[in-house]
């Protein structure tokens, strides 16, 4: 069901207000300095698979403690695999900072994109 013209205008105004008022929030949420740690992901997946095997073995031999131990290993493996990686600063690399001039140029770029979006939505192109 399409929106009426008044609803479309209201939605566009709300979007514009969100982009203009929360530009800082969007820029901070947009990028993450964290990199995935493939070693911990691989170890975590292997531990989770081993834990599932232990859980199944505990059920098969009807030993509660083996099943509980398997569950604990499986849970630990999932935690290891899903923890975020180390940041670039902790790994010894210089921090990923951009000069202030480049950051201000990026804000201009985002403003231009927002203006193009607004024109496209108004049908002007």
Protein described:
With 125 residues, this protein is mainly alpha-helical. The mean pLDDT is 77. It contains five helices and no strands. The protein is elongated. Helix 3 runs antiparallel to helix 4. The protein has helices at residues 5-21, 23-30, 38-60, 64-82, 100-122. The protein folds into two domains: 1-33 and 101-125; 34-87. The relative contact order is 0.12.
Number of helices: 5
Label the overall shape: elongated
Total beta-strand segments: 0
How many domains comprise the coordinates?
2
Return residue spans where pLDDT drops below 50 for at least 5 consecutive residues: none
Brief characterization of the structure:
Helix content is about 70%, strand content about 0%.
Tell me the layout of helices and strands.
Blueprint: H1 5-21, H2 23-30, H3 38-60, H4 64-82, H5 100-122
Helix pairs in contact: 3-4
Q: Key features?
A:
125 residues; mainly alpha; 2 domains; 5 helices; 72% helix; 0% strand; elongated
């Amino acid at each position: 069901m399409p929106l009426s013209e008044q609803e479309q205008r209201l939605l566009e105004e709300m979007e514009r207000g969100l982009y203009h008022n929360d530009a800082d929030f969007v820029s901070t949420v947009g990028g993450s300095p964290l990199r995935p740690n493939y070693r911990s992901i691989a170890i975590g997946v292997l531990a989770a698979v081993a834990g599932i095997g232990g859980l199944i073995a505990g059920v098969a031999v009807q030993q509660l403690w083996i099943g509980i131990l398997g569950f604990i290993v499986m849970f630990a493996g999932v935690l290891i695999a899903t923890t975020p990686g180390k940041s670039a600063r902790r790994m010894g690399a210089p921090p990923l900072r951009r000069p202030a001039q480049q950051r201000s140029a990026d804000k201009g770029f985002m403003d231009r994109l927002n203006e193009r979006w607004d024109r496209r939505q108004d049908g002007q192109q």
